[in-house]
Amino acid sequence: MTRSRENSTVKDHVRRGQRARAAGQWTEAYAAYKVAFDAADPASSTERERAEIAGELGLCEVALGKYRDAAEHLAWSLEQREALPAALQKRFEEGQRKATPHVAKLRLSVDPPDAEVIVDTKPIGRVARVYTLFVEPGLHTVRARAPGREDAFHTLRTVAKAEHEISLHCPRASVSSAGEDAPGSSSEAPRAMSSPAAAQARPPSPWASWPGTARIGGIVVTTATAAAGAVFLLRAHVVHGDLRERDITLRAQGWTSHTCREASAPAACAGIRDRVNERDLFATLGKVSLATSAVFGVATAASFFTEVAFFGGAPKAAGLRIVPVTTSERAGVLVEGPW
After folding, report:
1. Positions of E strands within the chain
2. I need a surface site. Which of 46, 200, 226, 249 has the fewest CB within 10 A?
3. CA distance 26 to 10
């Protein structure tokens, strides 16, 4: 009785989906076929019924623009094509041709085959050694996990209409060596007694303390302000060049240096004044930025001498030396050291 009732319920949803599809009500048809697809199982329906429901659901998803789900359901339906009439096979194949240009196909092999597969954050509800999946174009993360093994990850960027093949292997989890690392271990005790590193603790390097962090920050600020100053001065130079060209053109038209000072000054004078103010603003910003860069550069350089005075030595030359260089027209940095 229970199986008969479940089978009747699935058929009711299918009939409701057929009526909605005939009326062009794709949202209602999709909802009905989705409920029928979730309710259908091998115990209460035949292979043909399940394949037909999956295909009809896929066609509804194509009409609604749900191309990834449509490609998945139509592919699953056509895997049972022998159970479908020729007319349904043709309809479902046509729907699949409409859906696949919008998605990417992913062929995934997994070891061990019973590992759980998760695409992005969605678990794949079946277990297999090889999967054929459909995903939206873009960046995706595939994860496999199995008991007693380490997780396997793979990130890839998929392209519409393309096929991608990846393989995931979950290695066996490493055996814990906690017993060997125990404080009372006989193999570790002699090693600790004879180790010169354990007998003598080296003091931390001044370069790793706060002066090193402040020095790095000083280099960054010096470089940034020098670069900003160069950009501001370059902008001021460009505006100044535009003003000079305009001045030459206006003087050729009879303008003089007093034209914009007269009570009946032309309307173009307002634009010229704005450009002059813009040039002066950028020039001021550039000079201030370069002056700030010089201040931070001097402070950064002084930190080296401060470290020598307090710690009695300079930091080891283990990296690069960055020195800001600024002039009235240019700004930059001088980088020295081993590459």
Report:
1. 104-111, 116-119, 122-123, 130-135, 138-145, 152-158, 163-169, 321-326, 331-336
2. 200
3. 18
